[in-house]
Amino acid sequence: MSTPSIKLSSGYEMPLVGFGLWKVNNDTCADQVYNAIKTGYRCFDGACDYGNEVEAGQGVARAIQEGIVKREDLFIVSKLWNSFHDGDRVEPIARKQLADWGIDYFDLYIVHFPIALKYVDPSVRYPPSWTSEDDKLELSNASIQETWTAMETLVDKKLARSIGVSNFSAQLVMDLLRYARIRPATLQIEHHPYLTQTRLVEYAQKEGIAVTAYSSFGPLSFLELDLKDAHSTPLLFEHPVITEIATKHDRTPAQVLLRWSTQRNIAVIPKSNNPTRLAQNLDVTSFDLEAGEIEAIAALDKNLRFNDPIAYGLYVPIF
Fold first, then answer.
1. Which GO terms describe its molecular function (predicted)?
2. pTM, two decimal places
């Protein structure tokens, strides 16, 4: 099973449906990546602060060794953490992450958050976190321009084929485009019916920047993190608007939520360790929602953001 792709401004194709590695446990990660490849997934979305890049790479290596895929068949994504924004820190950490994955280049390398934190050497703490060696939230003086210039160098050195950003506002993207020598190929954002971010999505797509949605299932992704809003918000899988549409199309609520994005050319990166759901999540372009159904789902918007540093007790008011 394969899915359509999005043509990026860099000229490369990114699968419309990928597998997200956030909160994938280390002891199961290699098997989950391997099984996802066997199911048909070709895009894997990781990050150094997820702490599972070595294991993800092991799953990839096993699939390649068994001849299921070649490296060029895969689209591997990773992210630059906040504490490596200083210009001279970008390439070394990217090289470390490539070594962890066991690959020579990233298909896409993303600035994870638009905030620069004080550098902490990987030998001191890795995977990285929001705090310094003193367990304090300390900022770096690196500008986004300094960081982006270093990101562009990764493309020049063929360490990354495409570069992008995540959790950026429209204003920050506008600023970035003023000086970018290499335009951001993608913008990854929290995006689900409770947080539609309509203007941001529209702006990015008009600028030729592909949008990737994370946390497509809304509060479900955050229940285990014990966030108050996640527990007090109705689950989208059980919402009457979603379940009625799912029943009508003989699909699961998850498939409806993913199709709501992919039908608007927004990439998605769900995950599952259940073989049936793994295949179902990949099969979200073989049916179409009606225009009225897309509008009804969008009408659920509450401007409710779950992945906000402040929600985790970190005073980083970036949203």
1. D-xylose reductase (NADPH) activity
2. 0.97
